[in-house]
Design goal:
By secondary structure, this protein is of the alpha/beta class. It has two domains: 142 residues, Quinone Oxidoreductase, Chain A, domain 1 (Alpha-Beta Complex), CATH 3.90.180; 140 residues, Rossmann fold, CATH 3.40.50. Helices cover 29% and strands 27% of the residues. It contains ten helices and 15 strands. The strands form three sheets. Strands 3, 4, 5, 6, 7, 14 and 15 form a seven-stranded mixed beta sheet that branches. Strands 10-9-8-11-12-13 form a six-stranded parallel beta sheet, with helices on both faces. α7 links the parallel β12 and β13. α1 packs across α10, α2 crosses α3 and α2 crosses α8. The two termini are 18 Å apart.
């Protein structure tokens, strides 16, 4: 294996973040007991913020962004992994505090890695990526709080044309739920129907100002938007229903009332996909493999090169992308 590799490196000068593709020495990699030859990484909303230097996602520089990746173990000091093992990583502060996936190499802790199920290729694994993993965690949290396909009523997915939203629509539909997709992009309606959405509503229906409670509409919900959209979801949940919240692209503030919680008994479930224990990670990946056919996985992704990341970061920040962006780091 060569001693050098290519990576997108973020540096900071005079308060401005500069992304550049650099050729680096392997000994520049941070500590870890497994060296991975990366094949694919994903461009997530948080990656877009990091590349654009927004919201202090990255606290120290230089940094290789990319909060997830898939590839093959090249070297291992861990008994749990051997050269040739196909692995996927999501979360754990990679791409924020520890060099991440927009690179041909990564050295990481073995406890952060999951072996890719046999049914998935490395490309499939990153087509799922953090977005699909997070969506699966949301679905499992809703199920843990009583959601079943036969319970009646639609399950709502907000930000439905984005990475998490697309995967949530596909997972819920394959599990037998009636899915309503909320989006602000009319041009994506056919795409959402192809994933299994039975009904589509405008994003503004949820984010518009309203009273503390509205009509009880949703048997459950996956919210990847936050802000006023999440407030609108909470006030329109059915009695004892839950919303799994995993995003804040719509804002950090939550202007809502206690009434849905105390009069309808609704539940707000926070989903943090970074520090998930390894057994829960394996369970989520196994279920994704069981539920989603390859056609759904491929339908939700688009493939791009490392050189395209800066321009794609602007698009994802402006909510102008469909599904999950996958980066071929060797292209």
């Amino acid at each position: 294996m060569p001693d050098t590799f290519k990576a997108l490196l973020l540096t900071e000068r005079d308060g401005q973040v500069h992304p550049n593709i650099e050729t680096l020495q392997q000994d520049a990699l941070p500590p870890g007991d497994v060296l991975v030859a990366i094949e694919y990484s994903g461009l997530n909303y948080k990656d877009g913020l990091a590349v654009l230097g927004k919201n202090k996602v990255v606290r120290s520089y230089p940094m290789v962004p990319g909060i997830d990746f898939s590839g093959t173990v090249a070297e291992s000091q861990s008994p749990d992994f051997a050269p040739g093992d196909r692995v996927v990583l999501t979360g754990w502060g990679v791409g924020e505090q520890h060099w991440g996936g927009f690179s041909q190499r990564a050295r990481v802790k073995s406890g952060w890695l999951v072996k890719i199920p046999d049914a998935l290729s490395t490309l499939d694994a990153m087509a799922v990526g953090t977005a699909g993993f997070t969506a699966m965690l949301c679905v499992q949290a809703l199920e843990d709080h009583g959601l079943t396909p036969g319970a009646g009523g639609d399950v709502l997915v907000t930000g439905a044309s984005g990475g998490v939203g697309s995967m949530a629509v596909a997972l819920l539909a394959r599990l037998g739920y009636a899915v309503t997709a909320a989006t602000g992009r009319p041009e994506e309606h056919e795409y959402l129907r192809s994933l299994g959405a039975q009904h589509i509503i405008a994003r503004d229906e949820l984010s518009a100002p309203g009273g503390p409670m509205g009509s009880a509409r949703w048997a459950g919900a996956v919210d990847s938007v936050g802000g006023d959209t999440l407030a609108g979801v909470i006030r329109t949940l059915a009695p004892n229903a839950s919303v799994a919240a995993c995003g804040n692209a719509g804002g950090l503030a939550l202007n809502t009332s206690v009434l849905p919680f105390i009069l309808r008994g609704v539940n707000l479930l926070g989903i943090n996909s970074l520090p998930v224990p390894i057994e829960l990670r394996r369970k989520a990946w196994a279920r994704i493999t069981q539920i989603l056919p390859q056609e759904d996985i491929q339908r939700t992704m688009s493939l791009h090169t490392l050189a395209e990341v800066p321009s794609l970061a602007r698009q994802i920040f402006e909510a102008r992308v469909r599904g999950h962006i996958v980066i071929d780091v060797n292209a």
